[in-house]
Structure formats: structure tokens, C-alpha cells
Amino acid sequence: MQFNASNNNFSGPLPDVKGRFSAESWSGNPELGGEFISKEFPPSAAAAPLSPRKSKDSSRRLLLIYFGYAVLGLIILLVVAFILISKKKLKEAEADVAKKGVNAYTSSTYDVSKITEHKSEYSASYEESRAAMSPLVVLRSPRAQGLRFEDLLRAPAELLGKGKHGSIYKVMLHNGSTTLAVKRVKDWSVTSQAFRRRMQRLHQTRHPNILRSLAFYSSKQEKLLVYEYQPNGSLSKLLHGSRNGQAFDWGSRINVAATVAEALAYMHEELSEDGIAHGNLKSANILFNNNMDPCVSEYGLMISQSENPSSNSHSNSFGLDPARIRTSFKADIYGFGVILLELVTGKPVQGDELELIQWVNTVVREEWTVEVFDKGLLLEGASEERLLILLQIALKCINPNPYERPNMDQVAVMINTLKDEEDKSSPYV
Ligand SMILES: Nc1ncnc2c1ncn2[C@@H]1O[C@H](COP(=O)(O)OP(=O)(O)OP(=O)(O)O)[C@@H](O)[C@H]1O
């Protein structure tokens, strides 16, 4: 075996190297020196001096290392710059929205109560300012397409009502060519995900007499629902407004009762597995559309206490949590029963419905039943027999024991039978 130190080359056949380490070449314990077996380099090769090619390689390697460091440094610089710029942009956006929000609320078309309420709730929130830029989730209307929370805040609006569960505004967009009703739900401790799931499920359940929302907005602090504005008022207004039900004859009342009962029966059937009842059924939530057809609004907005992790429930004498009864299907039957009482008596529900129920029960018990009926209906010649049947259906619906109330399907069948009889007896049919 020969090794040419000048060109690092072997010449001759690959040695069956069985060279021997000398005790001097082993820097450690000379006793460790033993047989060295290699087929690659003879021991003498390691000791060869550094060739010019090798030194060129190592300087190139050094250059590469420096270059690597430089690239790494540049990347770190870019990341830091990106973070700083994004933070600055978010702060600018916050300031912009806060400024625009205040402008909108000081507009003369806004209701004063809305101004103060909005200012305190929105203006200080950094998160909300960011969220204001985000679009609403549009469920079905092209008119709501591209609409942002911020657009709703800025548009001229009028307070329609303020109830237990929040406030509702009439909001004018696109220079007044689009009118929407926007409900802000108050104190609704439901997660955004649960809210979204519910909205999507409700959107899938269609009935012509159930008002579906066009879009919604959901953030940690704020939940908004957007509806088409219904120009013809509510059943409550029609019955108890300035005209006191005068323009609302018996035939129309049976029609409304039958239409609403059918719509609710459909919803209860479709949503029974999801456990989504209306939850807040009352005459103010039955609205009349352009054709004067009744539409039930706000279906499914009230989340039952069982879905609310913060709820502290207590059972009543029927083994049910009263809060749950209020939002369950049986609670809807009760709410519908109260609406039937309003239709039959023409009397409004003031505060809670117990006053009306107690009055009806007392009159019926004393057998002055005819005294219960709306005088206007008797004067127009409505059938006392059929008025009594509707009253009996109402009393079944408001049975204090929820388990003894009929279901919505049975109620719809009873009212439709009554309507058929009414139609047959009508001189105009
Ligand atoms: N989409 C709509 N178009 C027109 N008017 C509406 C619409 N939705 C609600 N309204 C009217 O706005 C008023 C207030 O409605 P809202 O539902 O906030 O009151 P409420 O039912 O008393 O409140 P809550 O259910 O929170 O106690 C009612 O007179 C109702 O008829």
C-alpha cells in the first residue's frame, strides 16, 4: 500500500489494513493502543498536512455559515416589523370605529335611549371595535349581503320596543330603501357556537307563517338578529291598540288562531328532537306582513335554562324547573292559550297574564260565561257556541299542569275544525 500525501490518493490495491497504532500516535493511555482495523484511511493519512483545496472548502463553509446567520437575522427583523405594523393597524381601526360609532349615535334620527345605551356598551371595547368590522352571518336575504355590524350601528334607527329580553329597532339602510328590524338580545349567556348552531337549525326549518331572521351577528358581548320589518303591526296592537279590535272581526280572529296554531304545530314537530320551542309566545310576537297574514316572530330566541350553564334550577310541584317550563314546548301551548283568551275576550295582558286568567276563571266559575266574550264580537253576531268552543280550547292550553295541556298538533286540529264550521256557516261562502 502506498499513500501519496500530496494528492491524498491511494495507489495500489485497497489494503486489508491491519495496521497497528503506535503508542505515540494515541494521545490517551498508551495501553489503549490496540489493533486498528480500517478499510478507508491508513493511519498515516490522518496525519497528512492540510491541502490548499481543503482550506478553500473550509473558507467556503465559513462563508455559508455567515450567510445563514444574515438570512436568519433578516427573517427575525421582518417578523418583528410585521407584528408591530399589525398592532398599529388594529389600534387605528379601533379609534376609527369608536369615532364613527359616536357620530352615529349623535345623529338626530337615533332614539336617545339607544344613544346612551350604545355608548356605554360599545365605545370602550377594543374587542368590539375589531368585531364591528366583521360581516354579519347572512342567512337568506341579498339585502343583508355584505352588511356589517358597523353598518347597523351607523344607520338611522328608531326604537320600536324594549322588552325583558332586549330592545328592537327599526333600522333604515340604503337611503331608506331597505327597512329592517334589528333585535339586540340582552343578558344571553349562551356561547357564540351554541347561538350559531341554533340560528342555522332555525334557518333550515321553514314555514310561511314563521318569520325567519335574515342575518345575525354574534360576539362575546353582543348578539343581534336582523328581521324584515313588518309594516302592519302586531296582533297585540290590532286587538288592543287605538281601534281596540274594532276592525278585527270574528272570522279574522279564527283565521289568525288557525294559521298560528298550524305554524307552531309544524315547528314543534320539526324541532322536537332539537328541543327548540318558541320560548316567548305572546300577541306582540305575532306580526302582520304586507298581505296581512300573521307571522310568528322571534321563534327559538329564548335559550332554555338547561342550555345555560350558569342557571340555578329548582323543580316545582310537577317535578319541573319553572324556568324550563317557560321555554319548553308546553310553555308555548300555555302562551298560545293566553293569545286565544285575548282573541275571545278582547282584553289585553297587562304585566303578567295571571290577572286575565284569574278574571276569566272567576267569570266562568260563576257561570256568567257570556260576560267573558268581547262585546264587539257579540254585537257583530259571532256565534256564542263557537266562541265558547274557542274559550274551552284556551282553558285546556293554560292548564296549570303542563302534562295535561294538549300538544300543538291537537290544538291545531281543534281550531281547524272550528274554522271549518265557521266557514260553512258564513253567508259569504
Ligand atoms: N320584524 C318586526 N317588524 C316590525 N315590528 C316588529 C318586528 N319585530 C318586533 N316588532 C315590534 O316591536 C315591538 C317590540 O318588540 P319586542 O319583541 O322587542 O317586544 P317584546 O316582545 O315586548 O320584548 P321581549 O320579548 O324582549 O319582552 C313590538 O310591538 C313588536 O310588535
From TrEMBL:
Transmembrane helix is among the record's keywords: yes
Domain Protein kinase: 154-429
Segments passing through the bilayer: 63-85
PROSITE patterns: PROTEIN_KINASE_ATP, PROTEIN_KINASE_DOM
Ranges in coiled-coil conformation: none
One Pfam family this sequence matches: Pkinase
Alphabetized GO MF terms: ATP binding; protein kinase activity
Keyword Manganese appears in the UniProt entry: no
Keyword terms, alphabetized: ATP-binding, Membrane, Nucleotide-binding, Transmembrane, Transmembrane helix
Residues the record lists as binding ATP: 183
Alphabetical list of InterPro entries matching this protein: Kinase-like_dom_sf, PRK1-6/SRF4-like, Prot_kinase_dom, Protein_kinase_ATP_BS
Top-level taxon of the source organism: Eukaryota
Protein name according to UniProt: Protein kinase domain-containing protein
Originating species: Gossypium aridum
